[in-house]
Design a protein that fits this description.
The protein has about 350 residues and is an alpha/beta fold. The chain folds into two domains: about 220 residues, Spore Coat Polysaccharide Biosynthesis Protein SpsA, Chain A (Alpha-Beta Complex); about 100 residues, 3 Solenoid (UDP N-Acetylglucosamine Acyltransferase, domain 1), CATH 2.160.10.10. It is about 20% helix and about 30% strand. An eight-stranded mixed sheet has the order 5-6-4-1-7-12-9-13. It is elongated. It starts with a strand and ends in a 7-residue tail after the last strand. The structure holds guanosine-5'-diphosphate-alpha-D-mannose (GDD) and magnesium ion (MG).
Length: about 350
């Protein structure tokens, strides 16, 4: 069975991390994000994945290649952003799509029961089935009320109005060919704003799943997903964490530093003596000087932090940036990537 992964958004809310690296392959807990998605798809019998790329599209193919653990990977690149449904139409026009297709948002980390969603889809005879998940704050999602039989009653994409339910669109769809036929060709089209609202009452069903689900598309949620993976809230085959719950690549040098709890150090990082990295995420080749204190922040590849600097919670430092010795990067700030790394 095939799945198409939407992997062409600009990842604006994750900038500067996504200024040079596309969101779908941003390192998460030390591996390109989509690896978690491909492994999950593989567990549900998917053997071919079409990656729909646009922004920095070459970057996705360069990292993932043409095969992952028995899943064939193929790429459809768009010249202009086509939204969420437009890329599926483009892939259909390229040919080779089966009549029943799974479509995924490429920034969702989940262990939802895709097999059960497919079973429900067959049982109800739906034209489209959307996985739904419950969240506390529905404001940045598509809200999807259903009746007791799972029929979707409305599709309310980031409407701002009081939500009638806390069940939202989880970005995991099973679609019949009829849906692809509805998508206009040659322009950007949104499933959420054009296609799903039109399908309400015409074979659109919701499948409610209570498993793990998170959209990694903001720094806060990227960090939350990282800590959940480290803590094993979501099952994975990550290497064992150390006694502080941290994941430190073998090639790192950290003697005399305090790492953890729950830090991630990508390959070839070096951390000076007396430094403390608390729930921090370092991508590859980050150099941290002595006596620095880094808390709950993300540092892109090749960042250099001078000795004694402090990086406060929820800061994001873009690739190659240079933080001077003794500097304080305030909580929640964004430090742009160095020009060469963008
Ligand atoms: N190929 C391609 N082209 N992909 C795109 C484009 C495009 O022009 N625009 C966005 N995408 C991809 C993104 O890379 C992402 O994987 C997915 O489509 C969804 O886009 P986001 O920008 O992350 O949307 P969102 O998170 O605000 O909202 C969507 O996801 C929510 C769940 O996380 C909607 O589907 C909501 O209804 C849903 O609740
Ligand atoms: Mg998203």
């Amino acid at each position: 069975m095939q799945a198409l992964v939407l992997a062409g958004g600009e990842g604006t809310r994750l900038r500067p991390l996504t200024s040079g690296v596309p969101k779908p392959v941003l390192p998460l807990a030390g591996r390109p994000f989509l690896i978690f998605v491909l492994d999950w798809l593989g567990r549900h019998g998917i053997d071919e994945v079409i990656l729909s790329c646009g922004f920095l599209g070459d970057g996705v193919a360069r990292v993932l290649g043409t095969e992952h653990r028995g899943i064939a990977l193929r790429y459809v690149n768009e010249d202009e952003p086509l939204g969420t449904a437009g890329p599926v139409k483009l892939a259909a026009l390229h040919g080779g799509l089966e009549d029943r297709l799974i479509v995924l948002n490429g920034d969702v980390l989940t262990d939802a029961d895709l097999t059960a969603e497919l079973d429900q889809h067959s049982r109800t005879g739906a034209v489209a089935t959307l996985a739904l998940t419950a969240v506390d704050d529905t404001s940045s999602y598509g809200v999807v009320p259903t009746d007791d039989d799972g029929r979707v009653e409305a599709f309310l994409e980031k409407s701002g109005a009081p939500a009638p339910t806390n069940r939202i669109n989880a970005g995991v769809y099973v679609l019949e060919r009829d849906v692809l036929d509805m998508i206009p060709d040659g322009r950007a089209v949104s499933f959420e704003r054009e296609i799903f609202p039109e399908l309400v009452g015409n074979g659109l069903y919701g499948y409610s799943d209570d498993g793990y689900w998170i959209d990694i598309g903001t720094p806060d949620r990227y960090l939350e997903a990282t800590w959940d993976l480290l803590a094993g809230v979501l099952g994975s085959d990550l290497p064992p964490r150390d006694e502080s719950g941290s994941l430190i690549a073998d090639s790192c040098i950290t003697s005399g530093a305090r790492i953890g709890p729950q830090a991630v150090l990508g390959p070839h990082c070096s951390v000076g003596a007396g430094a403390w990295l608390e729930r921090a995420v370092l991508h590859e080749r980050v150099i941290v000087g002595a006596d620095c204190h880094i808390t709950e922040s993300v540092l892109g590849a090749g960042v250099v932090v001078g000795h004694g600097a402090r990086i406060e919670a929820r800061a994001v430092v873009g690739s190659g940036a240079d933080i001077p010795a003794g500097a304080v990067v305030k909580a929640g700030s964004r430090v742009p990537a160095a020009a060469a790394a963008r």
